[in-house]
Amino acid sequence: MLTGDVRISQGNASVCGFDVGTQLDSARKHFGYCPQEDGLDPLLTAYEQLHLFGRLRGLTIAETKLVFMI
After folding, report:
1. Is the whole model's pTM more than 0.90, yes or no?
2. pLDDT tens for residues 10-52?
3. Beta-carbon contacts of residue 51 (< 8 Å; ≥ 6 apart)
């Protein structure tokens, strides 16, 4: 429910002050998520994986490039 993969059934939750029910995109920018199975695509490089998941979670292209500048 916190990741948005399962519909919220009851109650409230927030991540870094962002309500998961109404501000999910903002909340997602403050946590990581690794599924138990099929989390990585074997056809993509590590860079491509990070870029893909970053873009899916709302990062800009420039923000995904910053990951590799650290």
Report:
1. no
2. 999 999 999 999 999 898 888 877 777 777 888 999 888 888 8
3. 64
Structural domain boundaries in the chain:
1-33, 35-70
The span from the CA of 66 to the CA of 17, in Å, is: 25
User: Structure tokens of 22?
Assistant: 């109404």
C-beta separation of 30 from 40 below 8 A? no
Q: Give residues with Cβ within 8 angstroms of 21, minimum separation 6.
A: 8, 12, 13
The residue assigned the tokens 């403050």 is: 30
Residues 6 or more apart whose CB falls under 8 angstroms from that of 47 comprise: 68
